[in-house]
Amino acid sequence: MPLSRLSRRIIVLVGLGVMLPALVLAALGIQLTMRIAQSVENDAVRYNRYLAQQVVEAYERELLSHLRRSITMAENAARDNVPRAQLMQALAAGTGEFVAPHFVALDQLDGYSLLIVESQPLLYSPGEGATKGLFFTGLLLRDSEGQVMGAGGWWVNPRTFLSAHVDDVMRERLPSNPRMYGGYESIRRLSVKLTAPDGTVIGHVREPGSGEVSREPFAGPFEGYTVAVTETGNAPLAWTRRFLAIEMTFIGVMGLVIVAATVFGLRYLIRQLELAQIKSGFVSNVTHELKTPIALIRLAVETLELGRVRNEQEREQFIHAIGRETLRLSHLVDNILDFARLEAGQRVFRFENVDLAAVIQDTVESFQPRLDHQGFKTEVEIADALPRVRGDATAITHCLLNLLDNAMKYSRERREILVSAKPRDRMVAVSVTDRGIGITPADQRRVFEKFVRVETGLVHDIKGAGLGLSLVDQIVRAHGGRVELYSTPGEGSTFTLVLPAAEPAAAGDEPQERTGS
Ligand code: ADP
Q1: What global pTM score does this model have?
Q2: What is the pLDDT of residue 414?
Q3: Beta strands 377-382 and 416-424, pairing class
Q4: Residue 181's pLDDT is what?
């Protein structure tokens, strides 16, 4: 029984009222998280660029410090106005790790370039011939009057210098700014890589992760070389990305759970409301179904008692009516009791090897007077050597009675009923076919649900409580079988009980009790 339009609207509104805010909140959560992640990423990229610049400058300072350390003697000699040969000796003495000390006189300094490091001019020039690949790198030398007399310095291999000083630069030369990536400690989650002009890596600190790379070119004697800074897998950015992925999954799953819970909750609510509606319909239906035969029986009995019948034929009609209504009443009461027992799990089946042919014959025979009275043509077709089935004969009879009753109730002009039984694989199929009103495909599954009566104009004229097919289905299932339905509206229906055949050797003829629910 479908719910009223208003109830459905209210349920849809409640659903939307729960789901929409949940989805909006989830979307806001995702947006906020993405913004935070974006800002962390921007900061990280800025920090990396800053660090790359710092590395470049730190190398320049490193070079300057080496030059200063080595040049002191030459500076002193220049101040003492010693001849050039002695200047060369002084330079050679301070060579340190550099090669080929060199003095360039003032008049030869044209074409040399200057790099200012910490306000200190640093002279440099690429080598040629024997010094090709090296860079002259030196400081100005002044005489005792403070006049620049030239530059003293060394030929330096930038590749060797850069790769040899990676650690010193990272450890000592980077500024210790706690708010930025300062010092060796704070860059431990970053990867720094030095690349030569030909693209080869000449030194690196830690392996890079997958983040964006910030590159900074070297200047002066290191021109052509680059420093690249990127995140390692352990950097804050990498953690942020992981956090973002987890958070997104979390929000997504939460959203899904909320939507699913709402949908399932509402569907459950709808089902419960429908059931409540069906149950209340059932109660009034049953009340009516019980009252009508009782009233008819009372009327017939009173009429007979008061001798108000005019002739023998009328008397028989009243007696027949009493019999018919009593049968109807007992059928309904049987159904209700059986249903209640099955629902409570208290229906006890007495399983034994049942001769189905005999059960069918007996049931049809007992029903025959009603069928005859209503003008039905009944046929019974039972296959030869029908195997026995393992089941409860009373319950199977009850199923057949329900099917016959329905076949009779839901037939119109064509009053034909065929009851047939034949073996099928290791089962036995018992069918009741009528030429009645039939059932639409959409209703074919619903008719087996308890209390369900199909809403056609006709059904209201036909008596019933919506219990019969649900009982048949439950009983057959308890036997390990199934009910099949083939029906075409307007042409008729075939209900088939498929029951398992008895295993001759297994259970023997011993009855067994089993509870059905
Ligand atoms: P009831 O007959 O008391 O209404 P049932 O559970 O026996 O309850 O049947 C459920 C519904 O299935 C019926 O209301 C009817 O609409 C439909 N139905 C059952 N048997 C037939 C049949 N043989 N032909 C057409 N419709 C049927």
Answers
A1: 0.53
A2: 92
A3: parallel
A4: 47
Q: Whose CA is nearest to atom 16 of ligand 1?
A: 454
293 lines ligand 1 (CB under 6 A): no
32-40 long-range contacts (CB < 8 A, ≥24 apart) are 33/244, 33/247, 33/248, 33/251, 34/244, 36/240, 37/240, 37/241, 37/243, 37/244, 40/236, 40/237, 40/240
Res. 185 pLDDT band, cuts 50 70 90: very low
More confident residue, 45 or 480: 480
DSSP annotation string for 317-368 = HHHHHHHHHHHHHHHHHHHHHHHHHHHHT-EEEEEEEE-HHHHHHHHHHHHH
Measured from the CB, is residue 471 less than 6 Å from ligand 1?
no
Q: Ligand 1 in contact with 492 (CB < 6 A)? A: no
Phi first, then psi: give them for residue 125, nearest 5 degrees.
-165, 140
Atom number, ligand 1, closest to the C-alpha of residue 495: 23
Q: Using alpha carbons, select from 224, 216, 157, 159 the residue that is nearest to residue 192.
A: 216
Amino acid of residue 284: S
Which atom of ligand 1 is least distant from the CA of 471?
A: 6
Give pLDDT, residue 292: 79
